[in-house]
Batch of 3 targets.
Target 1
Amino acid sequence: MGRRKMEIKRIENKSSRQVTFCKRRNGLMEKARQLSVLCGSSVAVLIVSSTGKVYSSSSGDSMAKILKHYEVRHADELKTLDLKEKTQNYLSLKESLETVQCKLEEQNVDNISVESLTSLEEQFKTALSLTRARKKELMMELVKTLQEKEKLLRDENTVLASQLAKMGKENELLETEEERAMLLENNNNPPETLPLLK
């Protein structure tokens, strides 16, 4: 007798849901381990439960190494996602500024209440502090990126300097060997002398 096919939908019973979560989590982690062993690949599994508890498993390489590899491979995609977040944040700030501007441009500017002005002031302060915080964050990211580039350039400079020094030593050895060869050649062929007068 075969197993019946289970419909995939949220389990309403809390205890059944927890049991299913534990069994399937363990099964998923076991399958990931098997994939790593069978194919010789690095596998990382990261699961966050509905209560916020984090479960992780890695095989092949450490979780940190796998995540670093993923970050390097998908840096462009992550930057694009980060840019989308920044754009959405910018749009929300822009919308709030437009709302404030609309309120200020109303015809009854003289009749605006103190509470309304206080609310507008708070919105301005919030928008300003968010903008400053975002600007500071972007500047820090830029500084960090430039520092990383500087380190890479210094490392490359060190490698190039060592290669140049090595090439200089090789050239000196070649010059020394050429001089030795010339000396040996001169020793084998005695210098010509003037014939003696008879």
Note: Helices lie at 14-39, 63-73, 75-104, 114-188.
Target 2
Amino acid sequence: MASQGPKSAASILLVLNLVLYFIVMVIAAWAINHGIERSREAASVLTTPARIFPIYFPMGNMATGFFVIMSLLAGVVGFTTSLTGLYNISQWTAANLHAAATSSLAAWALTLLAMGLACKEIELGWTDANLRTLEVMTIIVSGTQTFSIFALQAGVEEAVARRV
């Protein structure tokens, strides 16, 4: 009989990632909405090159726009990957586990890109509490997504070994 260790570990990590990616999505969507609503009055006092910058946010620093957009993209992809990964884990076949592992790698790559932008925003400073929360959540979810990939890969190896 096969071990249930990789299945339970992957399931727990995918549920955790589902919650974390949802939080990242909500905060990033709020930041984009806030930026759209306040950018007109905040950008009107800037000089011409900064005023026509397409990703200007009235809060944070010059890395905020890139970070928020990439966090929203990583949150959406990670949320859907975690959701479909839970379905694939419930099936527990080699093909489904390969699909879950592959989509988790794509979500991980986007999350690492968002984490890099979060680190750059932390380095530049001048962010408010909501953006700091988004930075911290992005860094945490990049770590949990890494462990999730390891658990899924262990499940893939177990499913392949069972077939042979």
Note: The CA atoms of residues 20 and 141 lie 6 Å apart.
Target 3
Amino acid sequence: MHLPWRQKQQASKTRWSATKDAFKTHVATAQANTKDTLQEYNANVKDRLRYKAYELGSRPAAYLVLSGFLLGSVSTLGVTFVYRRYFRRLRTAEWVTPDILQRKRWVRGVVTSVGDADNFRLYHTPGLGGVPTLSKELKEQTIHVRIAGVDAPEGSHFGRQAQPYAVEALAWLKDAIEGRIVYCQLVRRDQYSRIVSVVTLSPPFFPGWLITGRSLALEMIRAGTGLTYEQAGAEYGKYGKDEFLRAEAESR
């Protein structure tokens, strides 16, 4: 006997079975895709973690090498700068470079000889350096200094007679500075390759870099062994020309 409702029920079951199979297939496919995606994500995470671990492991060594190189370079430059500026001895006037004169650098040294009443030989003693005891060791090792701001009578040179009071002026200067420490501010080079310098005597109780001693040029003028040098390019240090002229007027 043909029953229409049974046919409809059977068709409904068939459609439901197909839908259920399609859903199962979809779920299985989605799970497979999700699994593949998770596996790929995990693999990417592991790769990134390995890279970070390698980067963190190698970076300190590179930083240490670079930091050591930079620190060594800076230290070398610093030591070189300090040595060249404060501890390198200026052997002769040729060692006095234009940049030293431009800075008007102060140097400390011992007067080894006085050649005339307004110039002398200086053995530069930077740091804790001393002066050789043997005279032969001083050959070509001193700076020829011309005292700035003062003009003293010249001795006999090249057949010319000595100027009045040249002997007395030379004797005074020898007694004042020969074998003693003086401080020189290097100003310029004159036509005779001498280094024109503002010269101060060593203070009696304190180091010269702490307290400025008396001006040698002013002491010469007060003693009557020199006059104020008034030609172009004259240097008088911190005292100025007026102080030199006042000292000259008082000494007369």
Note: The CA atoms of residues 89 and 232 lie 31 Å apart.
